[in-house]
Amino acid sequence: MKTSRALLMALVLSVSPMAMSIATAQTAPASASASGVETRTVGQLVLENVPATPEAIRERLIQYTNTRAATFQDFLPDGGILISTRFGDVPQIHEVKMPMGARSQLTFYAEPVGGAGVRPNSGGSFVFGKDKGGDEFVQGYLFDRKSGLAKAFTEPGTQNSGIRFTKDGKMVAWTVTRNGTAVRDIVVANPDDPTSRRLVYRGEGGFGIADLSDDGKTILLGQSISVSYSKRWVLDVATGTLTPITPDLKVSYDGGAFAPDGKSIYILTDEGSEFAYLVQIDLATGNRTRVSPVMSWDVDGVDLSPDGKTLAYTTNENGLSKLYLQATTPGAKPRQVALPVGTIGGVGWDPASKRLGMTLSTAKAPGDAYTYEVATGKLTRWTQSEIGGLNPDTFVEPSFFDYPTFDQVDGKPRQIPAFIYKPKSASADNKAPVIINIHGGPEGQSRPGFSSTVQYWVNELGAAVIFPNVRGSTGYGKTYVDLDNGFKREDSVKDIGALLDWIATQPDLNDRKVVVYGGSYGGYMVLASMTNFNDRLAGGIDIVGISHFTTFLQNTNGYRRDLRRVEYGDERDPAMRAFHEKIAPLNNAHKITKPLFVIQGANDPRVPKSEADQIVARVRANGGQVWYMVANDEGHGFAKKGNRDAQREAETLFFQQVFGSK
């Protein structure tokens, strides 16, 4: 299988072996420091100034936190499928033998299990990845269906990603990162024999495997330099010879798949276009043939059928997904597949090139696994995930809107795309408080998938939830993505100021009760918003956020540093470092006088805990009010259900404090 179905080892997050809430877990006695900070330890959580959760809040919230989703992983040779879902604390791999059949759990770990891919010609054996405590040092495992045993085939202490099998299943190739450095190794092995590991290529930078030829002789190798700049090569496995196949232009390439005859590749690019499209490249001549039609949206995923006759690709149209099928014969036209309105993920072919598997999610329903039969056009649902006993009729769908910001395009105010979930009770006489949820990345995009957290905020807290896609977001063209780079960093913060202006014009929204909320880069945006618009905000929740770009770049894991320097600016340049000093929330923390809640994983390799520690200390030194939650067994965000439950409980208490109890 190609592109999307070759196993992409997700950087998984860790899980505690015991689910717990703040109110019910074993809690160490609270202690108060000389500075008045009250500290409690609850399991793996360290809580500073975070109050205990009342029983009534916990009991209602638990319904929302017990919704779950199922994601399609791969087809099994007997006609069943593999899915990922959570029945205990963390997602694990399950087998489903028939549509709407029982979900039979196959992996049982205290850590979450990353994506699974079936090994060809193995009777249904599969590979998966998992890390430890959110450290992102993912190990690859081969699960043998006959024995029920899983065995690691990767080297301990390394980070592994991009696993690809040959067509016969006898060889696997993947990317290895050692000691958190920027050096990447391309390795091949027989997964049955870990001692057979062999280094094929070593390079510094964002190298990764896009595809492996069916015969295992050639690897399609990619290098990501930034979100808008990447390269592709063909790597000869026998000799280690690297041959460039894309021109040295500042354009983006994504994915890539060999045609079955190995003479060409299908790949996504934005060369000469604002948006990504599908192109076929002849490897012998370099000739490039556009495959997907011209459109004003990105093609964001593609999978080539094993027989090489049909391409399945998805488009991202203002955050919503559409699926198309297109023959590989010259001049063929795409055919849109009729699917529910929502988002589509994990699209992949079965070995016979007759069915597609995928995960479908809507704003009012969590993700579930589906299959689509190409010949008949029949869509079949395989799972129906639980929604905690809640009534789906109460769930709110979002509305899309654009709002004007500070600069102009063609003489008119630039428009920022966003969507809003609004409580049905909101009116001019009952103005709803507002949560502005800012996505991370910054090369990311908020899309209207299902979120039980958002539904809780809307239905139980009575809050309107706005997701802005400020400049720097993907999905709206490559010019838009680059509008916040380097010295333009605070322009994206100004987009939040413009959103506050828009909120003030809405008769049913309370512009005096607005909280900014976000994680990772979104956490930086929370802190930057609070230093720039403190008097217009009621508070902020910063999750694994950056408080100073220079200290972040100095301390983040080495394999990410150069990629982040392209986006945020190189701190080694004196002018850029001076700019970082000027805009750093850490250096402007005296402006934060509204309540702040900081949430952090102790093992985070991306945004290290030091970023949270320093902003908490600085705001407190200035007399500000800060809640601080640290999970000692988590990384870049909370993965374990017990910790996530505790986070949601504490967030609820924080919202009630700044909004007033409903």
TrEMBL record:
Pfam families: Peptidase_S9 (PF00326), Peptidase_S9_N (PF02897). InterPro entries: 6-blade_b-propeller_TolB-like, AB_hydrolase_fold, Pept_S9A_N, Peptidase_S9_cat. Residues 450-661 form the Peptidase S9 prolyl oligopeptidase catalytic domain. Residues 1-25 form the signal peptide. Keywords: Aminopeptidase, Hydrolase, Protease, Signal. SUPFAM superfamilies: alpha/beta-Hydrolases (SSF53474), Tricorn protease N-terminal domain (SSF69304). Residues 210-384 form the Peptidase S9A N-terminal domain. One of its GO terms (molecular function) is aminopeptidase activity. GO terms for biological process: proteolysis. PANTHER family: DIPEPTIDYL PEPTIDASE FAMILY MEMBER 6 (PTHR42776:SF27), SERINE PEPTIDASE S9 FAMILY MEMBER (PTHR42776). This is Dipeptidyl aminopeptidase BIII. It comes from Candidatus Phycosocius bacilliformis. The gene is dapb3_1.
